[in-house]
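User: Please fill in residues for this 424-position structure.
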């Protein structure tokens, strides 16, 4: 959160499974819609927080599996772990706080007396979280008697039921809601309380997020029964919490619009990307370019689309494009390369998305834009860290940018054969 000098304009705190990530959408379209919206219009002055029940191990697996953005803050293991940045630096203060009145051994001892509880995998057992699976019809009864037993043993715990199958036991001070309250308090102390915060969730462990004061909330359309029941009993009259009519990340976009938290039209929803030329924002320009590239290669635009001619007019000769393989090309070669790859990804699972975009204005009309560009090609993902130099077109009335320089470097190892269909 140190990335921003002042308070975030919007902080989105979102659950992952069945909220940000739709496991019933193999194309990941709503997630990709959200990604484009976030990078084009929010990343530079807002904060993205993922709040998941997953342990660091399962969270990292999900990040490889799905086209997810890099969050600024990650709340893991049902609010028992808070980490910052891409390096996932843990919040030690939070760990220390949770250790009060908590004894994992007693929890293990007492839970072993319930045959209805099946221990989840080893990765999901964390320092401040013990997790089980339990059948729906047994859950309420077990939760009640377990709570009594643990109280008798002097522990102050929280028992949470989620997804109609998972049962988590945490210290009373933990949980997604408490972790968010802790972050907000910390931000306030630093003079960086976000102007608006939107919490997003679908299941039982998200309920707490919706009871933090001054926080907007969206339960996505596909929310679980246990969350809807909690809402009906506890937050029905709270106008700050809505039940979206759209699934997962599309429900989040819907809530941004409903609460007037900012722009809610994803560049992916704009049929004619040319019509958005009037947005003279370098971050939007980069997101729009790679979306056009995706559509071009998937043959979702006409071959006669002005994308190429415009690109030609936007790339100046004698400027360079440093290909991630290290080969230096003339930027003007780019339109010709693109010409030959129209439709080469038609009917394939090819997708492009931009992550962690940042920009700096280096002269009155020049911008340096940094980002990681990801591509999904034939079920495989590869990325490159990219820097682009953009100049606002003159005269101002002509709108748009001139691309002066592109420099890309592979993220991690990329096999030599994968260089062949790399365009930019
Ligand atoms: C995630 C975690 C699991 C937890 C569940 C509900 O699926 O992996 O341990 O029980 O979320 O919070
Ligand atoms: Mg969920």
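Assistant: Residues filled in for all 424 positions:
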């Amino acid at each position: 959160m140190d990335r921003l000098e002042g308070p975030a304009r919007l902080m989105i705190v979102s659950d992952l499974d069945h909220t940000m990530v739709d496991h019933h959408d193999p194309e990941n379209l709503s997630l990709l819609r959200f990604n484009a919206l976030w990078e084009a219009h929010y990343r530079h002055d807002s904060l993205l927080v993922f709040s998941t029940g997953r342990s660091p191990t399962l969270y990292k697996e999900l990040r490889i599996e799905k086209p997810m953005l890099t969050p600024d803050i990650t709340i893991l293991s049902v609010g028992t772990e808070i980490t910052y940045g891409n390096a996932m630096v843990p919040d030690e203060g939070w760990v220390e706080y949770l250790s009060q009145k908590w004894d994992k051994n007693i929890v293990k001892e007492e839970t072993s007396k319930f045959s209805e509880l099946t221990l989840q995998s080893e990765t999901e057992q964390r320092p401040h979280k013990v997790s089980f699976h339990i059948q729906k019809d047994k859950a309420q009864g077990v939760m009640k008697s377990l709570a009594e037993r643990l109280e008798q043993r002097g522990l102050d715990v929280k028992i949470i039921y989620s997804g109609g199958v998972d049962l988590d036991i945490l210290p009373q001070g933990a949980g997604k809601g408490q972790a968010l309250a802790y972050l907000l308090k910390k931000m306030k102390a630093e003079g960086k309380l976000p102007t608006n915060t939107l919490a997003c969730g679908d299941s039982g462990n998200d309920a707490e997020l919706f009871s933090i004061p001054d926080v907007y909330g969206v339960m996505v359309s596909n929310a679980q029964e246990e969350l809807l029941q909690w809402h009906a009993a506890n937050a029905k009259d709270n106008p700050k919490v809505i039940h979206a009519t759209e699934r997962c990340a599309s429900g989040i976009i819907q809530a941004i619009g409903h609460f007037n938290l900012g722009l809610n039209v994803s560049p992916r929803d704009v049929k004619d990307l040319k019509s958005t030329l009037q947005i003279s924002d370098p971050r939007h320009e980069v997101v729009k370019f790679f979306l056009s590239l995706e559509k071009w290669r998937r043959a979702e635009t006409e071959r006669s689309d002005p994308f190429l001619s415009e690109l030609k007019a936007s790339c100046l000769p004698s400027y360079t494009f440093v290909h991630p393989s290290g080969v230096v090309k003339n930027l003007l070669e780019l339109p010709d390369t693109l010409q030959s790859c129209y439709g080469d990804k038609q009917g394939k699972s090819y997708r492009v998305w931009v992550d962690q975009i940042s920009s700096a204005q280096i002269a009155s009309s020049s911008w340096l834009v940094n980002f990681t560009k990801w591509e999904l090609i034939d079920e495989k993902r590869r990325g490159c860290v990219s820097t682009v130099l953009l100049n606002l077109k003159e005269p101002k009335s002509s709108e748009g940018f001139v691309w002066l320089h592109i420099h890309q470097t592979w993220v991690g190892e990329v096999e030599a054969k994968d260089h062949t269909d790399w365009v930019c």
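For context: The radius of gyration is 24 Å.
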